[in-house]
# Entry
Amino acid sequence: MSHEMSHMGPRAFNHDNSSDAEAEYDRLRDLARQEAAKRGQCFGRSKEAYSSGDGAGAKQLSEEGKAHGRKMEEYNKQASEFIFRENNSNGRVAADTIDLHGQFVEEAEEILEERIKYAKQHGQNHLHVIVGKGNHSANHIQKIKPRVEQVCQELGLQYATEDNAGRIYINLTGGEAVMPPSTGHHAPQQGHGGYPGQQQGYQGHQGQQGHQQGHQQGHQQGHQQQQQQQPDEIEEFAKKMLPKVLRKLEKACCVVM
# Structure
């Protein structure tokens, strides 16, 4: 497992982020890198002390290294939670979508596994996963996508790369990963020709139009309400599941997309 932490910068965000958000994310990852370096130094000095016969000094340095390791994990935990909220809240993604930009590989794996469980518990039959195209990775190699595919294989779920190569569609029912046709398209309204009693028919058509307009308005209002509920669902997942996920990460994997 590689422990080289590269500077993420704006590439961690899947939207037009503020400079403050970018700076905060970088600050947390930088602090984690510093703690990782201090941990390595302590463990190296501990080995030297042990080799020279200073068992007490070796033990003390080892404990200091472990303390730096715990701080590293905490900063990475904060960074992971921060970038998750930034990329997934405030209506930035739909309720059936999760954005894994900015996560280390192990972080992404744990979050996805819990998100799949959460989706199934709430009756969702599919999930869109934003994994990134690897444009900012070394040699433009996608890191998150292979791990997402591995998780699907382990869970027995079929998946498919969407038209956007940075997205994966997962069928949560165990069936074939065929994306359903997009919904929301209304059938064209049929015109009415002239006939005796046309005025009455026209009034009837007006009534039908009014009914259709009311139905469309109700549909739009329902859609708007659903959009308003999406951040709440994501917030619920972030509050209940994300801390649990991050606590399970004993080590932060530093391979990024």
